[in-house]
Amino acid sequence: MYSSTFTFAKKQYDETFYRLDQAIADAAKEIPGYLGEETWENPATGLISNVYYWDSLEALQALINHPRHLEAKASQQNWLDGYQVVIAQVIKVYGDGKLTALPVAQAD
Description:
ABM domain-containing protein, Dimeric_a/b-barrel
């Protein structure tokens, strides 16, 4: 399993941002190999992180190469005040079983 974490500082969003953001989220969910996602905001820094989970690098690459994603990436400076992407291989997921609603709770 793989995760892609997109962390960013936001500027001002506009209608185009919201349209592309929704289109990318919808596209991700349609890609075979999409396992789920989580979004986090750090109130102290204002940074936002979107974490997507994938069963393969090929599935992740499908989103990276999606036309809406490429469109958003080309215009990111309009809405973001910096960003970072971390691609990671998840080697283990465990817990007490109470958070089974998380997208990777069944992973081993």
